[in-house]
Amino acid sequence: MWMCGVFGILNAQTVDHSLTIHKVDEKELFDRLIDFSLHHDYFVHTVNSLDKFMQISYTQEKPKKIFSAETDKVITYNIFVRSLGEKVWSIRVQARVSELIWNGEVHKSSYYYKDLGVSQDVKIYKQLMAALTAYFD
User: How far is it, in rounded angstroms, from Cα 43 to Cα 127?
Assistant: First the structure.
């Protein structure tokens, strides 16, 4: 997908979970990533502009149905920023998923989040990458 806009985004790729951003300095890039996260209701865990790293997450809630096997998931995104030149940046994303698990007991119910590891589900990445691309366009 080739795009160009105010910030000159080019070559937004969802296959390798990355996009390239042009015509923005480092401080503005991180300010925009923070604004994006807050505007889209992501929980911001970490922002480290020195290491060029950011971690955000959100809870993907499933509709509550009596006999549904669907459960809530927490998706945590690691966002890595690398310089490709003057005012040219690569943003790469890695997603980790945790799933809400119920112990199955009615009278002594308990829940916990099971770590499912790094996700290979393209849909999880496409959602964030499309929103980032639109936000920086």
Answer: 16
Distance between start and end Cα atoms, the chain: 13
For residue 92, the cross-strand partners are: 18, 80
Length of the chain: 137
Q: What is residue 129's three-state secondary structure?
A: helix
The region, left, alpha or beta by phi > 0 then psi within -120 to 50, assigned to residue 85 is left
Q: Which helix (H) or strand (E) holds 22?
A: strand 18-22
Average pLDDT for the chain: 84
Token pair of 14 as six digits:
């969802």
Q: What is the pLDDT of residues 91-132, one digit of tens each?
A: 999 999 999 888 777 888 888 899 999 999 998 998 899 999
The string of pLDDT tens digits covering residues 6-27 is 444 444 443 458 999 999 999 9
Q: Of 56, 54, 2, nearest to 26 (Cα)?
A: 54
d(CA 116, CA 71): 13
Distance CA 35, CA 54 (A): 12
